[in-house]
UniProtKB/TrEMBL annotation:
Residues 18-122 form the GAF domain. Pfam families: GAF_2 (PF13185). InterPro entries: GAF, GAF-like_dom_sf. This is GAF domain-containing protein. It comes from the Bacteria.
Length: 141
């Protein structure tokens, strides 16, 4: 069972940025642990329940400490998109690191849209700023 309050927060974030699907993964020890998901197929939630540093878009965003995006989840050949992510009903997607007060990455938030797009710096900054409202104590699953 995913965290209901984090799911509610995620739904608000997705609505504010017109995204159709998304996830919240929190850093616990040496892995990202899923805490919330919206419109993510159950199989994808299973596969992404725990993500190592550098794997997939979320793991790369954590490792690089910067947003990782794709214009089309299904057709991306950059190596950043894992096969399971292609099952998400969306095209464009971004994974953004969320920091704690000392600048350490504490979570990675993912958003997906139905259309192809490349987010420009202003859009990324707006989403990243909004993502800082992620509750401080997000329990992993």
């Amino acid at each position: 069972m995913l965290d209901e309050s984090t799911h509610t927060w995620l739904r608000g974030l997705l609505d504010r940025h017109t995204a159709v699907a998304g996830t919240v993964h929190v850093v616990r020890e040496d892995l990202l642990h899923i805490a919330a998901a919206h419109n993510i197929p159950p199989r994808v939630q299973e596969v992404t329940a725990r993500i190592p540093l550098g794997k997939g878009m979320a793991g790369l965003a954590w490792e690089r400490d910067r947003p990782v995006q794709t214009c089309n989840l299904r057709e991306d050949d950059s190596g950043a998109v894992e096969p399971g992510a292609r099952a998400v009903d969306g095209k464009a997607a971004v994974a953004l690191p969320v920091h704690d007060d000392d600048g350490t990455v504490r979570a990675v938030v993912g958003l997906a849209w139905l259309d192809e797009r490349e987010l420009i710096d202003g859009e990324l900054a707006s989403i990243a700023e909004d993502a800082t409202s992620l509750p401080v104590t997000v329990p992993p699953v």
